[in-house]
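lol ok so funny story. i was supposed to be doing the assay writeup but got distracted and ended up predicting the structure for this chain instead. priorities right. anyway since i did it might as well share w the group, maybe its usefull for someone
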Amino acid sequence: MQLDCNGKLVDLSGPQVMGVLNVTPDSFSDGGDFFAPEKAVERALQMQAEGAAIIDIGGESTRPGAAPVSLNDELQRVIPVIEALGPRLRVPVSIDTRKPGVMRAAIAAGAGLINDVNALQADGALEAAAQCGVPVCLMHMQGDPRTMQKDPRYDDVVSDVRAYLQQRAAACERAGIARERIVLDPGFGFGKTVEHNLQLLARLEDIVSLGFPVLAGLSRKSMIGKLLGTGVEERLPASIALAVLAVERGARLVRAHDVAATWQALQMVVAVENPSLRA
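and the output, tada:
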């Protein structure tokens, strides 16, 4: 399977890495590191060289407790970076946003995929995504970033997340977004306890069984710190382990801060499980 991201193709016959690029001052892991456009461009090119198949650019932090960012501020953060990268990247850029105005502007500037933690639920988001004509990634989140980690509860977290993603995918198809342009993300860490996250990963095949490519975002997550007592910069080994487990359970995209290490780990999975896909 291939995702056509505004003319740049992503091959999902094997696992791929989506590199994280936060152009924010306050993201949980790398907030402020790539806030300057020139540093963001340099980092994007580095991640491409390290094996990233998609560069995911976000201008609004969605860490627990994060405050919303205005439309204008978000546009000022992401659009110059997307425009600068257009002629320099061979891989597509994904825009990580909940706002229809940012979606439209980012795709016009050259982005090729919409990655929405709110699963296109904002007013006008579904219509904007359909009109942009690019793939969409729909994520599950209970609540919003300001409140999502305040006592999240589920009847059965895997069944509840699966039903939600199925419903959002159906809404996309009704809006005119083709099935082959839909990616699902169970939203690890977004309105979920450590136990919820572990259950979701253990039963990720239940999400994969819906028939859409699945993205897993487990890199440097707080669940690792809670289980191991490690700081954000000490979570690489556990992040790689979780990425491998996700791919073994059917994920086709892994969202990662540490692209080179994650890419190398996934190549070993491919070498063992599907030698015909070796890089």
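The beta strands are 2-5, 8-11, 16-22, 54-58, 93-96, 113-116, 136-139, 182-185, 215-217, 253-256. The chain has one domain: 2-277.
back to the writeup now i swear
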